[in-house]
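Hi Y.,

Following your request, here is the sequence exactly as I used it, all 165 residues.
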Amino acid sequence: MVEEIRHWSVEEHLRQVIPVLGAEDDPHLPDGQVDAVLVVNAYHEMKAYDAMLHSFYQALTLGCRLVIIEPEAKPGRPRAEYQKEHVIPAELVKDDAARNGFQFVAQHPDVVAPDQHHWLVLVFEKPRPKTEQYRCGGRGFPQPIWRKSRLAKPLDGVKRNNTQS
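Below is the corresponding structure, written out as tokens. Let me know if you'd prefer a different format.
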């Protein structure tokens, strides 16, 4: 699968897509260098879900996103049953993510597959400290946002209104 993704990304000239083969408890992503992590129809299979979420958290830069897309299930059963059925409830994923430092951002409802099964689309963020003045700034993401501040200095060649209040 990794080779197929690598071939596809080269064929489509997607330089920002770098397929990486991870292990059961480690995705082998570089710390603090990833703009987004997308997990599709795989989270319910993870037995070392806390280790994986911790690794995702370490790999993401501040303010960047983790998106988990999974077949939806009703809550209230043991995790092993969900793994057998290849589904997972949103509450379980949200609890796992929160325990590993992620902030819940959004759940996109009404995603239905051709087989009429409902899918979860859960979006989480690696939170920025309140003192940070930027958002995730990688390819395809918003670039830094500079606040008006008497300490802020204009960039070379950039004019901006820097009034004090």
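Residues 148 and 161 are 8 Å apart (CA to CA).

Thanks again,
Q.
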